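Protocol step 4 of 5: obtain the predicted structure for the target chain.
Materials: sequence only (see below). No template structures provided, no constraints applied. The aim of this step is simply to have a reference model before the mutagenesis design in step 5. Sequence pasted as it appears in the construct record:
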Amino acid sequence: MTSSSAPGTNEPEPSEGLKAFGAALKSFRKRAGYTQEALGPEIGYSTHFIASVEQGRRFPPPRFVDQAEATLDAFGTLRLIVHQVSRQRGLASWFRRWAQLEQEAITLYAYECRLIPGLLQTPAYAQALFANQLPPLGDEQIQAQLAARIERQRLLTERPNTAYSFILEEHLFLRNMGGPDVTRELIDHVLTVAVRRNIELQIMPLVRETHAGLGGPIRLLETPSNKWFAYCEGQESGQLISDPTVVSMHQKRYARMRSQALSFEESVSLLERMRGA
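Step 4 output (structure tokens):
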């Protein structure tokens, strides 16, 4: 969400907006007489998470803001600040609500036939995508988008209890976006991520007689209250879907694709063969 990264790390520097929210949270916490350790159980978040938010390194999800507002009696100040912060640099305006929901999702599914999902991209692959956008982006815009993408990827490591599933078309790796070296690094990264217990990876083979995903990419998530949402994105627009009938349709299609795609073991074997080519 910023245009630069901390030296020697993949973490973006805290933005001014996030730092302002963190400072306000810290001030209200101390005013109410809470330590970070004491506040955690009250609002349902770990001490580490609270510390990260106060340092401006984590975007506060909606439930965090609501719980902190109520517990610390913050007069609506935290909601006001986070409303401004939610205008995140590097994230398309139509994607921001979905990005907020991702922060607390307990289940997250993604089928992609156009490009590798942002959560699985390497910096080099993402940079190649941004460099090829039309109209062209400036260097600062590219760095802001890259920082935002790296920030989102922390979900995979910091939410070990969230169940992730990715179904990726084989041709996404055959496109060779960014060149052979970028593709090999991408495959290595995807294989490394896929060994996590909470992540399922499947490849949809290039040749497949039946395919439930011909309607396009699918994204689904489940909230802590067990409500499901779907998301569809075009070239310059995105639609958050809450209608249970439509969400159920996407769930049915995704479930069918899980049976049509290669198994995890077969998918890993295919990627390893592609990597060695």
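Step 4 remarks: The first strand starts at residue 107 and ends at 112. The first helix runs from residue 16 to 31.
Proceed to step 5.
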